[in-house]
C-alpha cells in the first residue's frame, strides 16, 4: 500500500471514530505509520485530505455510472443497476461516505462548490435517464425527474446514519431494495 493510501485510510478511520475537527494531523501520521512530510507530500492540509476522501469515491462511482448509463441495457435496467451500484459502493466504504457527509460543511467554500458541482453532474446524468424514460412513456411523468432524483439520492446520502454491516441486510440487498423502490415509484 502506498503512503498516500495509508494516509487516506488512517484519516477515514480517525475521522469516523473521532470526527474531522477532533482529529489532528499528528494522529493521522501516527495511525498511518508515515511522517508528516509523507502526508504533506500528497495533501496540503487536513481539509485537502477530507476533500480527497469524498472525491475518490465520487470519481469511482461516476465512472461506474457512466459505463452503465451508456450500455445497451434497457433503460429501466440501467437505472436499476446505477441506483443499486451507488448504494453498494457507498456501503462498501461507508466510513468514508459518512465522514464526508458529516464533515462537508467544514470544507472551505471553494471545495464545497467543487464537490456540489461534481455531485450535481452525477445526479443530472441519472436524472436525464429518468427524464428519457418519462418522455418515452417507460416511466410515469407526473413527478418531475429532479424531484425523483433528489428524493432517492437524499436517502442514499443518509445510509451512514442507519446502516450497519452486522445488520439484517447486506449492502447488495439494500442496493436492490433502493433500486426496486425507485423503479416502482416510476411505474406508469
From TrEMBL:
GO molecular function term, any single one: transcription cis-regulatory region binding
Source organism superkingdom: Bacteria
Keyword Transcription carried by entry: yes
Keyword Nucleotide-binding belongs to the record: no
InterPro entries linked: DNA-bd_HTH_TetR-type_CS (IPR023772), Homeodomain-like_sf (IPR009057), HTH-type_TetR-like_transc_reg (IPR050109), HTH_TetR (IPR001647), KstR2_TetR_C (IPR041490), Tet_transcr_reg_TetR-rel_C_sf (IPR036271)
DNA-binding region: 24-43
Domain HTH tetR-type, chain residue ranges per copy: 1-61
Membrane-spanning parts: none
Coiled-coil region list: none
Keywords, sorted A to Z: DNA-binding, Repressor, Transcription, Transcription regulation
Pfam families: TetR_C_24 (PF17932), TetR_N (PF00440)
Protein name, as recorded: TetR family transcriptional regulator
Originating species: Amycolatopsis rifamycinica
Amino acid at each position: 500500500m502506498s503512503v498516500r493510501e495509508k494516509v487516506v485510510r488512517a484519516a477515514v478511520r480517525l475521522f469516523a471514530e473521532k470526527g474531522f475537527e477532533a482529529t489532528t494531523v499528528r494522529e493521522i501520521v501516527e495511525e498511518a505509520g508515515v511522517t508528516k512530510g509523507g502526508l504533506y507530500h500528497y495533501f496540503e492540509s487536513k481539509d485537502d485530505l477530507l476533500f480527497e476522501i469524498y472525491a475518490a469515491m465520487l470519481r469511482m462511482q461516476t465512472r461506474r455510472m457512466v459505463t452503465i448509463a451508456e450500455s445497451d441495457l434497457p433503460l429501466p435496467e440501467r437505472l436499476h443497476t446505477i441506483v443499486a451500484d451507488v448504494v453498494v459502493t457507498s456501503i462498501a466504504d461507508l466510513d468514508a461516505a459518512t465522514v464526508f457527509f458529516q464533515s462537508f460543511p467544514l470544507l472551505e467554500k471553494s471545495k464545497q462548490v467543487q464537490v456540489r458541482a461534481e455531485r450535481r453532474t452525477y445526479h443530472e446524468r441519472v436524472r436525464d435517464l429518468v427524464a428519457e424514460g418519462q418522455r418515452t412513456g417507460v416511466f410515469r411523468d407526473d413527478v418531475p425527474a429532479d424531484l425523483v432524483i433528489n428524493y432517492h439520492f437524499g436517502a442514499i446520502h443518509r445510509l451512514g446514519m442507519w446502516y450497519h454491516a452486522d445488520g439484517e441486510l447486506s449492502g447488495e440487498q439494500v442496493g436492490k431494495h433502493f433500486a426496486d423502490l425507485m423503479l416502482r415509484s416510476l411505474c406508469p
